[in-house]
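Discussion board: Methods & Data

I've been asked by a reviewer to show the raw model output for two of the constructs in my manuscript, not just the figures. I'm not sure how much to include, so I'm pasting the format here to get opinions. Each protein appears as its amino acid sequence followed by a line of discrete structure tokens. Is this the kind of thing reviewers expect to see in a supplement, or should I convert it first? Here is construct A:
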Amino acid sequence: MSSHRTKDSINELKTYFNSVIDWVSSVFRDVEKEMQGLEWGRLYEQYHSKSYDPAKVSAEVKLLYGDPYVNNRRGVFEYILGGLQDSKLIDLRVFDEATKKSAYAKQTAAAEAKNSSNCPLCAIGHAANKSKIWKFNEMDADHVSAWSKGGGSLAKNCQMLCATHNRAKGNR
């Protein structure tokens, strides 16, 4: 915009501005207060060449707005435009099922080979659970590096802990 401030006519800038507004209006049916102040020019430049179904976008916005694990509602719009790929945009702090199952399988195979517990904290303990193999539904996914301290919900940062140890670990 600063490159246009010395021009006598604002027609080019007005046309661009209207293009951005028209694009946003065609992609997002529902207007949410979190849309105010977003970098729509940058988002337009990055995503306007892709095709979006406004009905699907609207359903996705409603779904994400209703999800208690979404901590950044302002990031919902770029998250949707980017194909639901970058969960950091919405501060999503949960692991998907595939990641949890993969971590469980990997930990369980390693634990069985060492005759120790598949919960890493049980395995180093002195209790009767030192060699217990927990079932998948008895374990919780844990962020190795705490989510609140920047640890992402990525496969490399996921470990499965027994429910007791996961709750005891807290924000460490």
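Construct B, same format:
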Amino acid sequence: MLKVLFMGTPEFAAQCLEAVLAAGYPVVGVVTQPDKPVGRGGKVRFSAVKELALKHDLPVFQPKRVRRPEVIAQLKELGADITVVVAYGQILSAEALAISPRGSLNVHGSLLPRWRGAAPIHRAVMAGDAETGITTMWMDEGMDTGDMILKAATPIGPEETSGEIHDRLARIGADLLVETLRQVAAGTAPRSPQPADGVTYAAKLERADEVIDWSRPAVAIANQVRGLNPWPVAYTTGPKGTLKLWKASVYTGAVEPRHQGPPDQAPPGTVVALVKKQGFVVATGDGQLLVREVQPPGKGRMDAQSYINGGNLMAGANLQ
């Protein structure tokens, strides 16, 4: 069977590694990002891939720069036939991509060429895409520009979060990787160039992506909220400080005029109504948003009704 050199870091990658091992492929080495301290205590936590590799007594390598000549030479000595890269976290040079004689393949969380880049799952949900999927591809020096091997699509439900899509794609990706390796070993793996049409880029998430702009349409804000759930979470500024929004949806019910002027003329960010057992309704640039779950400063997640019951919000309040 193909001897595999595996490169990856988070849980998404760990599921792929586990599938490769379960399929019986010998993994000659695992490359993952260096350990980093996390939290206030600065405790060092291993990556999900490292934890799994140690569990299976696999050799683990954690270079700061995998492209360094001495690192490449060390990894070549492992004698892998092919390199598998899944959410590793470093850009590979041409030399690094050529460590294994059969080349390097990647498992990417989108239907390429849509959403090349660092945050394909978040961007697909935030954009309101109806579907996404997994693409396996032969890697080149570009940003997710290599020839495609296999694809598997999955729908994105109107209420699904990035976390839910991530977990489903991780399972799909693991299965598709095993099938890809089977075809590579059999010499039947295709090479399909990516089309020039339909290319979009999934830029790395920035702090600005988390801030809610109430002048945007309600549907766009709802997609932003679920697209940033469970991380890094969208937020606004309310009467009592920063307020994270965990769940929200477009509101289509009747709104009583609890502010000055008709509901459809309220300035964006105005809380136009409190809906019993559901949450609070906010005016946006186009339509209204029903906020259903929030997290106030220094507290845990709670349903919006509990937040209202605590005297934290009244109709007519302004969110910024």
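Answer (T.O., handling editor elsewhere):
This is acceptable in a supplement if you add a one-line summary per construct. For B, something like: The chain has nine helices and 17 strands.
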